C-alpha cells in the first residue's frame, strides 16, 4: 500500500540527510597542516609527516565517534597518496594535484549520471532513505534530482577552475587557502542550493522525497 503522506517534510534538508559539512571541514585540516609544515621547515618530508600525523589524529577521533572504518582509512590514504606525490616530484604544489584530478573526474561522473537519467544526488539520497530505485519511477523526483545534480556539477567545475591555475602557477599558500574556502563553505552552499532546486522543482501536491510516487 502506498504512503498517504499529504505534506512534505520541509523542515528536513539535504544537510540533515547527508550529514552536513562535517566531513568537508575535517578534510581541509591535513592539507593546511602540510603547507604549514612546509613553510616552517622548508622540507617536504617534514610537511608529509605533519600532514600524516594530523590526518591519523582526525581519523582516530572520527573512528571513536562511530564513523565507518572504511571511510576513516580512505581519508588517511588520500592524504598519504597526495604527500607521496609531492615527495616524488619534489614540488609542494603537487600535494594538491589530486584535488584537481578528483574534482574534474567528479564533475564528469555527475554529468554522465544526469545524461543517463540516474542523477547521483538521487542515487545517494535514495541509498540514505533505503528507497532503492523507487525514486526513479517517480517522474517528478527524477526530474528534480537531475536539476539539483547540476548544482553539484557546478561545484566541481568551480573547484577545477580555481585549483587548476593555482596548481599550474605553483602558488602553494593560495592552494591551501582555496582548499579551505572551496571545501566546507562550498559544500554547505551546494547542499542548500541543490535542496532549494529540488524542492521547487516538485509539484505542490507532491508528498516529498520520502514518498516517491510511481508514474
UniProtKB/TrEMBL annotation:
The chain crosses the membrane at residues 44-63, 70-87, 107-129, 141-168, 174-198. It holds the Pfam family DUF3159. The lineage of its organism: Bacteria, Bacillati, Actinomycetota, Actinomycetes, Propionibacteriales. InterPro entries: UCP010219. This is DUF3159 domain-containing protein. Keywords: Membrane, Transmembrane, Transmembrane helix.
Amino acid at each position: 500500500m502506498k504512503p498517504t503522506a499529504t505534506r512534505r517534510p520541509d523542515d528536513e534538508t539535504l544537510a540533515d540527510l547527508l550529514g552536513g559539512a562535517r566531513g568537508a571541514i575535517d578534510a581541509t585540516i591535513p592539507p593546511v597542516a602540510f603547507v604549514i609544515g612546509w613553510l616552517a621547515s622548508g622540507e617536504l618530508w617534514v610537511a608529509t609527516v605533519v600532514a600524516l600525523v594530523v590526518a591519523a589524529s582526525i581519523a582516530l577521533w572520527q573512528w571513536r565517534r562511530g564513523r565507518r572504518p572504511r571511510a576513516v582509512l580512505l581519508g588517511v590514504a588520500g592524504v598519504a597518496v597526495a604527500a607521496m606525490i609531492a615527495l616524488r616530484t619534489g614540488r609542494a604544489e603537487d600535494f594538491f594535484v589530486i584535488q584537481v584530478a578528483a574534482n574534474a573526474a567528479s564533475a564528469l561522473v555527475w554529468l554522465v549520471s544526469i545524461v543517463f537519467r540516474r542523477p547521483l544526488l538521487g542515487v545517494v539520497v535514495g541509498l540514505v532513505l533505503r528507497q532503492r530505485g523507487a525514486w526513479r519511477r517517480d517522474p517528478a523526483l527524477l526530474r528534480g534530482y537531475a536539476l539539483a545534480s547540476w548544482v553539484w556539477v557546478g561545484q566541481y567545475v568551480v573547484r577545477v577552475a580555481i585549483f587548476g591555475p593555482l596548481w599550474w602557477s605553483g602558488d602553494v599558500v593560495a592552494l591551501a587557502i582555496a582548499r579551505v574556502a572551496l571545501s566546507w563553505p562550498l559544500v554547505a552552499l551546494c547542499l542548500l542550493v541543490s535542496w532549494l532546486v529540488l524542492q521547487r522543482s516538485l509539484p505542490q501536491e507532491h508528498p516529498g522525497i520520502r514518498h516517491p510516487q510511481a508514474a
